[in-house]
Amino acid sequence: MKDLFEQAVKDAELLKDRPSNETLLQLYSFYKQSTEGDNMNEPPENPFDFVKKAKFEAWASLKGKTPEEAMKDYIELVEKLKV
Q1: Distance between CA atoms of 55 and 62, rounded to whole angstroms?
Q2: What's the Rg (C-alpha) of the chain?
Q3: 5-56 confidence digits (pLDDT tens)
Q4: Three-state DSSP class for 46?
Q5: Fewer CB within 10 A of the terminal residue: the chain, N end or C end?
């Protein structure tokens, strides 16, 4: 699984078309959950830093998902984007 995940990370960097912001947030959150586990960080202090807030919330929404499940989701999403 780890090898497939690492290949998917490389493939994601080489996508022909830039994914939507929503899809980029999904990729980010699956990646972070895969590599670091549950988000144990504090929410961003600045309520107007929308990018940090969106990233924090996307990752936090995966709480409890195992790294292996997140890797699988990441790989599946990248495969869909490659088509």
Answers
A1: 11
A2: 13
A3: 999 999 999 999 999 999 999 999 999 999 999 999 999 999 899 999 999 9
A4: coil
A5: C
pLDDT at 59: 98
What's the pLDDT tens digit per position in 54-83?
999 999 999 999 999 999 999 999 999 998
3-class DSSP state for residue 44? Answer: coil
If 0-12 CB within 10 Å is exposed, 13-18 middle and 19+ buried, where does residue 9 land?
middle
d(C-alpha 78, C-alpha 83), whole Å: 9
Residue type, 50: F
Structure tokens at 73: 């989701």
Q: Into which CATH architecture does domain 2-82 fall?
A: Up-down Bundle (1.20)
**Do 30 and 76 touch, CB atoms closer than 8 A?**
no
